[in-house]
Amino acid sequence: MPRLTARERREAYQREYAFQKKHGKSFFPHAVFHDTIVSLIVVALIMGMAVLWYAQFGPVPEIADAAREGGILGPAYEGKADPGVLRYDPRPEWYFFFLFELLRIFKTPELLIVGSVIIPTIWMVLLIGWPFIDRNPDRRLSRRPVALAVGVMVPIVLLTLTFYGAKAPGAVGEASTAPGAAAFANGACSTCHTFADAGTAGNVGPSLTANAVDYETALNLITNGKGGMPAFSAQYNEDQISCLAGYVATHSGAAAGKEGPEAATAAETYPASCEKAGGEFAGTAAAG
Ligand code: HEC
Predict the structure, then answer these.
(1) What's the 229 CA to ligand 1 centre distance in angstroms?
(2) Is residue 212 a contact partner of residue 258, using CB atoms and an 8 Å limit?
(3) Of 220, 211, 276, which Cα lies nearest the Cα of 243?
């Protein structure tokens, strides 16, 4: 096809415009009518699903204390929310796993803003600005190496993040019945440390499932803090700290197949501190 001059293009456009103005359909009422019909269909669909749900599962019993399977429409209903639960395991819907993983990459509190605000903002600005940045009218892929590379990279990165986000250990388990476990799980420690024995899944500090830590090191760290680890000497008394350190020394390192280096001796002595500390520290009896 021969290339048209600017003037020819303008004339062709004006011919087309005049033709459509005369013979085309106007926005009102034609397009408005279509939109109304489609909206009504969507509303009817939602109402139909609600009726279907109620016919199958309703009414919800007064005491709905467990989730009930509902098939393809998702759970029929879930147990009532319990405001007393301290260790809720917040996991996003699958389509947010990539953001979830992004947050897990930036662990320290100072870097968190990179994953939570800075990268998503850059991304949104890029999306909005893209038509202004990329003005290349060519549609052949071989002439658009940069756009092609970006177009391939973005889904790969998103899928990878989604994959690892889905695999991320986040499941909050039950705390064991060892003295100190409940205090570790329900106190501040759980927000930063993964520790299988206590059923916690924090990501800020090292995993105590993986690392075996001895009593002296743990005692010193909990008392005085170090780096990203806060000092707890103001918050906990000596017995409480000794109890937590003993608990860590006897139960850390399980994943590596080791026990805390002084597990044998500490295991005998530390429950006494927990007993003196009382409350949650004393073990299952007082937990909760
Ligand atoms: C604000 C987050 C945070 C909290 C809360 C926290 N820790 Fe830590 N913890 C860390 C960080 C970060 C480190 C690594 C410190 C370093 O070596 O620089 C650490 C290190 C440790 C270590 C040594 C781990 C190793 O592999 O050497 C132990 C043991 C420990 N913490 C126990 C506890 C206990 C017990 C509590 C609760 C009383 C607790 N932590 C609360 C962040 C935290």
Answers:
(1) 5
(2) yes
(3) 276
Characterize the bridge pairing of strands 194-195 and 200-201: antiparallel
State how far the alpha carbon of 152 is from the alpha carbons of 142, 145, 163, in Å: 14, 11, 17
**Residue 226, strand partner residues:** 229
- Mean pLDDT, range 279-285, rounded to an integer: 70
Above 60 in pLDDT, residue 284? no
Q: Which of 139, 167, 195 is the last residue of a domain?
A: 167
Residue nearest (by alpha carbon) to ligand 1 atom 8: 229
Confidence category of residue 194, pLDDT binned at 50, 70, 90: confident
Question: And the tokens for 74?
Answer: 């998702």
The answer to whether residue 79 sits within a structural domain is: no
Nearest atom within ligand 1 for CA of residue 108: 12
Q: For residues 67 and 78, what is the distance between their CA atoms, to the nearest angstrom? A: 4
Distance 71 CA to ligand 1 centre (A): 43
Give nearest CA residue, ligand 1 atom 43.
229
Domain count across the chain: 2
Pocket test for ligand 1, best of 107, 204, 221, 226 (most atoms within 8 A of CB): 221
pLDDT at position 264, please? 58
